[in-house]
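Interim report, section 4.2 (structural modelling).
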Amino acid sequence: MSKQPDPTRRSERSRQAILAAARELVSEVGYAKLTIEAIAARAGVGKQTIYRWWPSKGAVVFDSILALSEPSADSGMALPDTGDIEADLKVVMRATVAEFADPAFEAPIRALTTEIINDPGLAAQYREKLAGPVDEAKKARLRSAQRAGQIAADADLDLALELLYAPLFQRWLLRSGPLTPEYADTLVDLFLKAMRPPLRH
Amino acid sequence: MSKQPDPTRRSERSRQAILAAARELVSEVGYAKLTIEAIAARAGVGKQTIYRWWPSKGAVVFDSILALSEPSADSGMALPDTGDIEADLKVVMRATVAEFADPAFEAPIRALTTEIINDPGLAAQYREKLAGPVDEAKKARLRSAQRAGQIAADADLDLALELLYAPLFQRWLLRSGPLTPEYADTLVDLFLKAMRPPLRH
Amino acid sequence: MSKQPDPTRRSERSRQAILAAARELVSEVGYAKLTIEAIAARAGVGKQTIYRWWPSKGAVVFDSILALSEPSADSGMALPDTGDIEADLKVVMRATVAEFADPAFEAPIRALTTEIINDPGLAAQYREKLAGPVDEAKKARLRSAQRAGQIAADADLDLALELLYAPLFQRWLLRSGPLTPEYADTLVDLFLKAMRPPLRH
Amino acid sequence: MSKQPDPTRRSERSRQAILAAARELVSEVGYAKLTIEAIAARAGVGKQTIYRWWPSKGAVVFDSILALSEPSADSGMALPDTGDIEADLKVVMRATVAEFADPAFEAPIRALTTEIINDPGLAAQYREKLAGPVDEAKKARLRSAQRAGQIAADADLDLALELLYAPLFQRWLLRSGPLTPEYADTLVDLFLKAMRPPLRH
DNA sequence: CACTAACCGAGACGGTACGTCCCGTCTTCGT
DNA sequence: ACGAAGACGGGACGTACCGTCTCGGTTAGTG
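Predicted structure of the assembly:
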């Protein structure tokens, strides 16, 4: 029977200030050195106001990143579909490479990933709120390619996404190699070779 | 000009006690709640003895895992080579799946990965000391398959390893799906399809 | 521009617990072995609560002794005045001798003195808060004696107090000789001889 | 049956270096912040060499001050005796005032006093080695004055020294007033008044 | 239109851990 | 064998944050 705060009373001004402060501080000092006290101070907010609405530091950071992505999530979120799956995937993969190289994205995403690894709850939220919609858009494009006979009709699309993106993600996460547009292209080529439909005689 | 301790005077007894304590505590309380003080107390050691030889909590944990792997690293570290690359890879991949499922391995590896993500220095050490030897063994097996004409002779083997392992690693790291022997097999199948040498007429 | 804590929010309960713990611990282990950590633990208080309100160990001990004296300071604080300055001073000096011999007083006062010697700031506080009122009372009695023609009318009373008390204080502080009632009497006799008014014809 | 070090093997060079380092450091950082490690480092000596020959920090500092006084202690150590006790004492007292005002003397003496207060063993050593000879010289001068009928023949000379010096010492120790040549003179005047022999008719 | 309940900023509180300093002991090596 | 060097187990330091807990002071919505 614990006391739940009343969301209708919540100060939107404070919420925005907290998320903005969290975003800034993650970029400035990194996730590990980020503290609730610093967020509260930067946001001009009492600590209690943070503890009232978020259960953990990770949750705040997660929301702060989520808040960035939401506006674009409302809009279409569809991948290009020119009919040429290879060209379309290369465009998308090269864009992903560019995103990972952008320092403004890198710090928060790395922070978020760190937290997700050790918090299954956040991981679930991540898949639902952030990865989910994006993955759906990607799978929609692959389904279109299946219909066009460009990739195997019976392919497991979740697995397909892993095959395509996991090498890129791992190389970035562990810094185990350079992320270049050529690398993106090569991954697409290998992916298509693996997913190619069986030959008809 | 800074003062470095003299490694020849180092107490091997203390070193072992610290690494053992770190290993135990990571399993017991998890990496995030692991503290230097707890390691020192468990090891019966002064905190300064830890700070003297390791720059960070991450470095201690890294060494504690490294110490586990070293004995086996001395021995052969060769993968099975029956001539059947598909069968051999499936054995290895299934073993990897099993390893990731073992809670005794999972906790420290997850801890290590967390640390590696945010510490490029540790990441480099990881690649050199832990991943390196293993990857070399795997690439040796793939080279053997190249000689046997089972995979493309001009394939980039680092990339090949990423294609084969990254999906598995990512699924485990982000808990984005079940790790089963069948999954391991499927990855091998897709991998071989992608790496297959071009047909000669 | 530095951040001061707000005294109105101060916890009186904690303040009392800290002063009591400090008093007890000085008696138990002595001033040199007294630690802030032990005071905090005994008082059931966070260390920060001590550091927030006191600048040093010495200041805490000082306050803990001050707190003891304050209640009596409110009351009269007047010395006996029977008209016989010799008898009155001997009573007071013998009382001082007895006080110095009481182990319950000795430890904290010795601690306090140690700290005062090396901290001019504390020394000033000591004179204002502790020694000051007592000295005033003593000087009041001497002034009465001046009016009665028992000691020189033009005598410097601060100097007079030094002449009377310093030998006693020094013998106690340096343990350079026994503190007996007879010693007290002798000091009064010498003091009166030195302060006697000049003879009239 | 603990192992005693053999004094014949003792390195005089190290002993001197340690005492010099202690003297310097007391002046530089004060007694409270003085550490054995700093003394050892400054002296270019192992810590064990200090622990082998001295039981405590206080003992080292005591010896370091003692070493300064010893050369002069060997020589005469007699006070001036012009036959005029008042003039002679004023010279000596004014010299003491000047000594206390000298910062080079002040720091170590204050440190020494601090230690003596809390260590009865050191106090005894102090009286024997340092204060003793000086006091003897002073008492010799007073005895001469007794013979000359300038002070009471039956006066307790230890008490006399306290009466004369304690006010000065206390004022310096507690910083309770200015130390001036006039103050020294006044003390001598009062002292002589108190010690004056009884009138003969 | 007062009343009152909630959120809010602020920040003191009991704690835990930090990374550092120094203690006094012990060990190694060089002279 | 002593001395320099310094690693060791240990204890305390003073600081940074944790998450909880009052404090007034707004700020709604209700009676």
